[in-house]
Specification:
Elements lengths: L13 H23 L7 H17 L23 E3 L9 E2 L2 H15 L8 E8 L2 E8 L2 E7 L5 E3 L2 H5 L16 E9 L2 H13 L9 H9 L4 H6 L3 E11 L7 H11 L8 E4 L1 H14 L7 E8 L2 H7 L1 E2 L2 E2 L2 E5 L3 E14 L4 E13 L2 E7 L3 H6 L7 E6 L6 E5 L24 E2 L7 E3 L9 H9 L11 H9 L6 H12 L15 H16 L1 E2 H7 L7 H11 L2 H10 L6 H8 L5 H11 L2 H12 L4 E2 L16 E5 L7 H10 L3 E3 L8 E4 L5 H9 L2 E4 H7 L1
Helix pairs in contact: 1-2, 14-15, 16-17, 17-22
Bound molecules: 2-(butylsulfanyl)adenosine (IVH).
Protein name: DNA ligase
Pfam families: BRCT, DNA_ligase_aden, DNA_ligase_ZBD, HHH_2, OB_DNA_ligase
Family: Belongs to the NAD-dependent DNA ligase family. LigA subfamily.
Length: 702
């Protein structure tokens, strides 16, 4: 990348970079859940909001983007759960078209390529486009030997044993004169009825995460570590293509191939039909579109394949798709229903997502009773109200959405939806911070919807660093009602020892005597002393990362001083507020987050609770003049982009060595540390003849 023009692009501060890194990690996490585990945790709307924030940051600070950025990747790398299989014949994909005109254009291209005159129509095999995941099954002398997913088309995953559990898959082929090797390709899918039954069963087993649609369910069921799980799921398949084949006569046409697949024992779609020319193909599209709602499986379009193999061979392929086939996608299915109520869901990060509770309807053949409304802006933009008749749609893998309101059917009594000012789960107040679309519950430390996540943060390495309190253990303790707030961690031992305790920890699954002893020892060690910066970070105040927590700790020195200042800073007109935002690196948006946190009484109760159970917060190590810090008592200004550390880290390190960090250059400045692309501050420093340090010189002096 060349960066000759850096004039217009702003350079990111350390805080922005931290934010960006956090966002990247979050997106990578959700990508992995979606693509690798087939178990998305957040709605598409929330995911899109994350991507939108990422895009905005990258647009403002293009220098943030690296090869590793989520914006530079598609999907997620294949999981390592299965061994790779290199396809002998690549598994292609199809070019998509979205209307009849594009299909007509496809037909024109085919005819032109083949040089056919007006009197010679091209016949197409029309096939429903099954919404599942493609597979390749390999047979040697008629015996099934290997199954693979498509993967990236060149390398897929070995799913031999999982695929074997499908009763639809022939394990030995019927007939004689079988090819020496044969690869059959097609689609694994889950019937809508089986999908609904599966979700019902999962829900009955107390499973919190259900599958969003039949395709996710099929993918999730097929890609299981344990084939026994796959076997317990009802999966189906259709065959529609060949890969590698040796020792057999070539086929004349796609229809002959489909007949042979059926003769070998594969399920072949009964709705496949040869279309004699383009008009017939368009008629087939309409027929199938009309049948779509009644089918017990999802189809997202039709596929047209030039029927004659000789033509197919001549047409060949462009990039990764055949020139002889095209997919004609159907629009998302839409239906009308009543929006009965708008509920608010609180996510594990405290974001409140409005959800429409609907009069249940069948859309795309699946019963739908809820739809996401994304966020407040979206709700207002579409003017969605309780009691409205609405059009909803299920588009492919998307959770149902409300497309629009039928305003002419709106009840006269209808009123705009009023967002609550308190969290529906915990009653803490709700904020909407500047520049964010989401409403957030501020009761992070107490809100049951967020608490496991917050507890996890609280005990994490950079926070209280309590070993032995991993995610699983926390979840168990939470579910058993033993730990619901950070304070509970410190009373756990006492409660465990108390007479009358029904089930002691050491007798629970996954614990044991030694483990419990170690856990209590780790907890008590932290009770005896935790650094102020760790304490601040542990509270999980939005935007307050490790380095900001350190800046705050160094600035205020003690928990007492910090708490006092934060209370006083709730008034933006106060001196305390001025003092807070004057800390280099703490902007108004962070100050607002802190204010939101400290104006929630639940949070103050937790802090008080921690002190009551004897947690000792150590004062920040105020630097003393040891005689060898050139920065002691000196004023330092940072400008430009540092390469080796973030801005906040650099500041924190200067502060630790006794420096004062200022935001602007003046006669009183002792050092100006200049990173890449520094601007007016550097110029001014030179004018004033101040001591200028490069980043390396600064590090050396530290
Ligand atoms: S043929 C050479 N036929 O659609 C082309 N694909 O968008 C290979 N699909 O990856 C595909 N039904 O997973 C073909 N009757 C059908 C299909 C079908 C569903 C899927 C398949 C493929 C994707 C391409």
């Amino acid at each position: 990348m060349t960066t000759t023009d850096t004039g217009s692009a702003r350079l990111p501060s350390g805080e922005v970079r931290e934010d960006y890194a956090r966002l990247c990690a979050e997106i990578a996490h959700h990508d992995a859940l979606y693509y690798q585990n087939d178990a998305p945790e957040i709605s598409d709307g929330d995911y899109d909001a994350l991507r939108a924030r990422l895009d905005a940051l990258e647009a403002e600070y293009p220098s943030l983007v690296t090869d590793q950025s989520p914006s530079q990747r598609v999907g997620a790398a294949p999981v390592t759960l299965f061994s790779p299989v290199t396809h002998r014949v690549p598994m292609l994909s199809l070019a998509n078209t979205y209307d009849d005109d594009e299909v007509v254009a496809f037909n024109d291209r085919v005819r032109k390529f083949l040089g056919l005159g007006a009197g010679t129509p091209v016949a197409y095999m029309g096939e429903p486009k099954i919404d599942g995941l493609s597979f390749s099954a390999r047979y040697e002398n008629g015996v099934y030997v290997q199954g693979a997913t498509r993967g990236d088309g060149t390398v897929g995953e070995d799913i031999t044993e999982n695929l074997r559990t499908l009763s639809d898959l022939p394990k030995t082929l019927r007939g004689d004169r079988l090819p020496a090797t044969l690869e059959v390709r097609g689609e694994v899918y889950m019937k809508k009825s089986d999908f609904e039954a599966l979700n019902e069963q999962l829900a009955a087993n107390g499973e919190r995460k259900l599958f969003a649609n039949p395709r996710n369910a099929a993918a999730g069921s097929l890609r299981q570590k344990d084939p026994a799980v796959t076997a317990s799921r009802r999966l189906s398949l259709y065959a529609y293509a060949l890969g590698d084949i040796e020792g057999a006569e070539p086929f004349d046409s796609q229809s002959a191939l489909l007949d042979q697949l059926a003769a070998w024992g594969f399920p072949v779609q009964s709705l496949n039909r040869v279309c004699e020319g383009i008009d017939d193909a368009l008629a087939y599209t309409r027929d199938l579109g009309a049948k779509r709602p009644e089918l017990d499986y999802d189809i997202d379009g039709v596929v047209f394949k030039v029927n004659r193999m000789e033509y197919q061979e001549r047409l060949g392929m462009i990039s990764r798709s055949p020139r002889w086939a095209v997919a004609r996608k159907f629009p998302a299915e839409q239906v009308e229903t009543v929006l009965e109520r708008i509920a608010l869901q609180v996510g594990r990060t405290g974001v409140l997502t409005p959800v429409a509770e609907l009069e249940p309807v069948r859309v795309g053949g699946v019963m739908v009773s809820r739809a996401t409304l994304h966020n407040e802006d979206e709700l207002r933009r579409k003017d969605i109200r309780e009691g409205d008749r609405v059009i909803i749609q299920r588009a492919g893998d998307v959770i149902p959405q409300v497309v629009r309101v039928l305003l002419d059917k709106r009840p006269a009594s209808s009123e705009p939806f009023v967002f609550p000012t308190v969290c529906p789960v915990c009653g803490s107040h709700v904020v909407r911070l500047e520049g964010e679309v989401a409403l957030r519950c501020t009761g992070g430390l107490v809100c049951p919807a967020q608490v496991v996540e917050r507890l996890r943060h609280f005990v994490s390495r950079s926070a209280f660093d309590i070993e032995g309190l991993g995610h699983k253990i926390l979840e168990t303790l939470f579910e058993a009602g033993l730990v619901r707030t950070p304070v509970d961690i410190f009373t756990l031992e006492e409660r465990n020892r108390a007479p009358g305790t029904l089930q002691r920890l050491e007798n629970r699954d996954g614990f044991g005597k030694k483990k419990v002893e170690n856990l209590f020892a780790a907890i008590n060690a932290r009770r005896a002393g935790v650094a102020l910066e760790r304490f601040i970070f542990a509270l999980g105040i939005p935007q307050i990362g490790v380095s900001t927590a350190r800046l705050l700790a160094l600035h205020y020195g003690s928990l007492e001083a910090w708490l006092g200042a934060m209370q006083a800073a709730l008034d933006p007109g106060s001196e305390a507020f001025q003092d807070l935002v004057s800390i280099e690196g703490i902007g108004p948006s962070m100050a607002a987050d802190m204010a939101a946190f400290f104006s929630e009484p639940h949070n103050l109760e937790v802090i008080q609770g921690l002190r009551d159970v004897g947690v000792v917060v150590q004062d920040a190590q105020r630097p003393t003049d040891d005689g060898d810090s050139p920065f002691f008592g000196k004023t330092v200004v940072f400008t430009g982009t540092l390469e080796k550390m973030g801005r906040s880290e650099a500041k924190a390190r200067a502060l630790e060595r006794g420096a004062k960090v200022a935001g602007s250059v003046s006669k009183k400045t002792d050092f100006v540390v200049v990173g890449a692309d520094a601007g007016s501050k550097e110029t001014k420093a030179r004018e004033l003849g101040l001591r200028i340090l490069t980043e390396d010189e600064f590090l050396a002096l530290l």
